[in-house]
Design brief:
The chain has about 60 residues and is α+β, with helices and mostly antiparallel strands. It has helices spanning about 5-10, 15-25, 40-60, and strands at about 1-5, 30-35, 35-40. The protein is about 60% helix and about 15% strand.
């Protein structure tokens, strides 16, 4: 099981984006333990392509400094 912070680092996606995805029910099998989101291997496997696409899109939207 992975926490939202671990998934954020693993896919380089902001935690706020993952929380939004949770609200939109993109992780239907995600569990919570004491209010902490827990991502299983199933959630990661099913959503890997979507998460990687989101990470690329997020980086593409960042302004160059």
């Amino acid at each position: 099981m992975y926490t939202i912070g671990q998934i954020s680092k693993l896919f380089n996606i902001p935690i706020s984006t993952l929380r939004y995805y949770d609200k939109e029910v993109l992780f239907p099998n995600m569990t919570r333990s004491s209010g902490i989101r827990r991502f299983s291997e199933t959630e990661i496997d099913v959503n890997t392509d979507d998460l990687e696409h989101s990470a690329r899109s997020f980086r593409a939207d960042l302004p160059l400094v």
